[in-house]
Amino acid sequence: ITETEIKKGLAGVVVDYTAVSKVNPDTNSLLYRGYPVQDLAAGKSFEEVALLLWNGELPSQIELTEFIATERAGRALDAGVKAAIDLLPLDCHPMDVGRTAVSVIGARHALANDSSREAELIKAKELFAAFPAVVAYDQRRRRGLDIVEPREDLDYSQNFLWMTFGEEAVPDVVDAFRVSMVLYAEHSFNASTFTARVITSTLSDLHSAVTGAIGALKGPLHGGANEAVMHTFHEIGIDKDESREDAAARAKAWMEDALAAKKKVMGFGHRVYKHGDSRVPTMKAALDRMIEHYGRHEMLGLYDGLEAAMDEAKGIKPNLDYPAGPTYHLMGFDTEMFTPLFIASRIVGWTAHIMEQRASNALIRPLSAYNGPEQRSF
Ligand code: CMC
């Protein structure tokens, strides 16, 4: 095997078909089951988008009503899951809490090892409904606050924010949150989705695949980037009273130093998109609305300063995590909770891919080129 035959990082390797989403880097576009993601973000609820990704078509009114009822009935934090979370130290990473919670949910599920499409869809919908309570409870316990029970009169995004903050969020905030959920839901064969498919390909169960996917998502080269973006903002320093221009100038200087030191700056670059991430304009518009709502123009200064300096120096564009991080910060989430929010959304894409992998399975088992010592004896 020659050096060029080795596809390090599987870059450019096409491993299977998928009908779930289409990423087109040439036109910077992303389609979920044929629909442009920006159109879905403009006009559809996250619940409708979830049904679209699972079923291939947007739901009828009856299907949607039925799903909404199931989702609202399945939101409460299960006592066994809560007990497991309570065993975890407050200083462990919230991604570890999310990963453990999904594993516990799987171990306690009556259909855990039933891989029929019907059972997989039930488990996917239940996980979609149950996961927000994991994030909300974990956020609250880290702040020394009591759990807030879900409310069936609220939609998914309203209720997520309600359970986290114990107050009703205003419509603008709810909408920015919904947009982030829609945009994070699916993105073809990214590292975590591929992980889920690898696990599924061994005929393992859905919760194992999602648990593994969460492990892959945690890393800063993937989902952990939304958290890392906020660490960058904090490292530069956020000063609410600073002007937008001054914040931008400091951010620009920080970026120049970082690039001179050959640092990788999280929230920029993408394996597939080389001219910009299709999801960024929609998420940036949501961030802009949050900046207006909270009156935090210095955050926009930091955002613009980093973006401009990166573009000038390397021509590298932001990815979705770049506008998502500050958006979640403004909403009031702790920085470490950002990637668990990504889980809540990506559960949809992962489970859609798990079902697709099952439907035409082949064990995923690549080869390696050995470069250790020749055969020897001891
Ligand atoms: N900061 C500085 N330089 C960068 C960055 C960055 N964020 N991204 C790429 N580069 C440079 C890199 O140093 C390399 O330069 P050179 O050729 O001079 O060595 C060149 O661009 C190619 O980069 P690469 O890492 O070989 O490209 P890749 O396709 O393997 O990387 C990536 C894709 C996402 C891992 C990378 O861009 C990166 O590490 N970005 C930061 C992490 C991040 O934001 N991840 C989120 C990804 S998208 C959303 C998600 O999944 O959550």
Automatic annotation (TrEMBL):
One of its GO terms (molecular function) is citrate synthase activity. Coiled coil: none annotated. Pathway: Carbohydrate metabolism; tricarboxylic acid cycle. It catalyses: oxaloacetate + acetyl-CoA + H2O = citrate + CoA + H(+). Keywords: Acyltransferase, Transferase, Tricarboxylic acid cycle. InterPro entries: 2-MeCitrate/Citrate_synth_II (IPR011278), Citrate_synth-like_lrg_a-sub (IPR016142), Citrate_synth-like_sm_a-sub (IPR016143), Citrate_synthase (IPR002020), Citrate_synthase_AS (IPR019810), Citrate_synthase_bac-typ (IPR024176), Citrate_synthase_sf (IPR036969). It comes from the Bacteria. NCBIfam families: cit_synth_II (TIGR01800), PRK14033.1 (NF010636). Belongs to the citrate synthase family. This is Citrate synthase. It comes from Paeniglutamicibacter kerguelensis.
